[in-house]
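Quick one, T. Sequence first:
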Amino acid sequence: MSSTIAFVISFIITLVCMPALIRYFRSKHEGQMIREEGPSWHEKKSGTPTMGGLMFIIAIIVGSLIAGAVGHLLSPVLLILLFILILYGLLGMWDDSIKLFRRQNEGLKAWQKLLGQIVGAVVFLMVYVHEGLPLGIVIPGFGNLNLGWIYFLFVAFWLVGFSNAVNLTDGLDGLVAGVATISFATYGIIAAHQHQYDVMLFCFAVVGGLLAFLVYNHKPAKIFMGDMGSLAWWRPCSGLYFAAS
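Structure tokens:
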């Protein structure tokens, strides 16, 4: 029930509010700058509003918090998921803002993004340890494997690696939103099977926001998610699926 509430709230907020965000960026003449070294057919995408991730991230946060409160699922795990989503989303927002302000496709330097992602991973781990969550992974068929301090390296690699992987995938209309919808729906089902209902709630809040975003992001895209959207997708649910017993 709570996951359904999260899905519906996230979907409706994104679907209803996204046109206003598109109109705002168009009125300010702020849109995506296309790289010169890219294919020529990408040039027509220049000027398309970006930072659409702002709307569905807000929708996911609102949907998760309301549904979590209703279902008594405002657990440390759910709050950690939302926290790192916001943190990585803000890093992407900073990157997008530089691009829009300077009217170019280059935002933060690679080392600046990497540093921000590592800092986010460290903060995540500090909260994770503070809440006494397990330092191990569950491997199907083998049981719970306690990694000790190696778990910190595993999580840091997971967070930074997947954030960059999704960011690199964001090159075609609807690609990241479509792939991420399938991924998070799958993780939601896995979480339900593992009785991790707080993780399931978050997953379906994400699915709701992304499906509504796809209405405006499918070819030809009316808005892009920008780095604010793509950097935020670090596959958090899968990490906690392996981490939780």
